[in-house]
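Running this now, will post back.
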Amino acid sequence: MADILLEDLVKTYGDHEAIHRISCHIKPGEFMVIVGPSGCGKSTLLRMIAGLETVTRGNIRINGQCVNRIEPKDRDIAMVFQNYALYPHMTVFNNMAYGLKLRKMTKPEIQTRVRECADLLQIGHLLDRKPKELSGGQRQRVAMGRAIIRKPSVFLFDEPLSNLDAKLRQSMRVELKGLHTRLKTTMVYVTHDQVEAMTLADRIMVLNEGQIEQVGTPDVLYERPETIFTAQFIGSPEMNFIKARIVDQTLVFDIKDQGISFPAPDIELSNTENLICGIRPEHITLHGALDSGQAGIKGRIQLIERLGSDTLYYIDLSHDRRLTIKTHLNLPLQIHDEVYAGFSPDRFHLFDPASGKRLPLSEKIT
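Update: finished.
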């Protein structure tokens, strides 16, 4: 197992800086997922680790060795791409064996390695077929097998499941996680799909415009997002955001013609200072009517999405405000019904609208 140390990495293309001083330590045997929207720099960062992109400034160290000027083939890494990159004229066996042949391994050694790897990935019955005779999932297994068979110290995955249908992606996620458990090899995995990130990762690196927004375990990113960007990106459906103010030690939601307030949290804010209050869809309750003394925001159901065990309700509050509510309850509600949304203040996430950063307790906005 190898660790990867990224030290103040910068990558520029002409005047454009695609990667902005990224620093991170990926631990030996860790499954690190790099996630972010299209164009945020995640594939560029992965290709820098692989040696397919040069480093403008900073250092990449694999197992303590600076690899900035080391060729990709000499970095002891294996990469699995989105498009499989299999040789179409070769059988599955020869696709997997090709790298071993280049290393001048003996035929018995190659036979043994290929059989072991094929059994691990459950593709032993496909060794005589060519890529055109395989399904997308089978091709991806062959691509992973070609990487695994070399026994590298680091695996790099560049959106390997994005070409598969939803059902196959789910089963391949399970297989990938099981593969990591068995191999115990360091893996760095790039995806734009936050569901993949949450289910696969030991830790997640969230990128935004070439910069790290947050690095942490899936639970930490979900429960304590450090920025509005992370709060929006991690979680499906995404977090709701409501403008709020502190007035007379009370947190007041800024919603026209509706007065709903809560005791102010323990942060040092003066009156009228603006906040952004974030609430996960599953942390909002939905009511057809309010009991006496119960507080809630009034709205109208715009859309209902039934997802089997869960249901999503999209609630119009005003011309430009909407809430998404997620519940497992089977409520007798229909589109256009007037409803009330209820909140638990201990589930609120408070952010500074200027910086987009989370507000710690007892810390003043600067």
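The radius of gyration is 25 Å. More later if anyone needs it.
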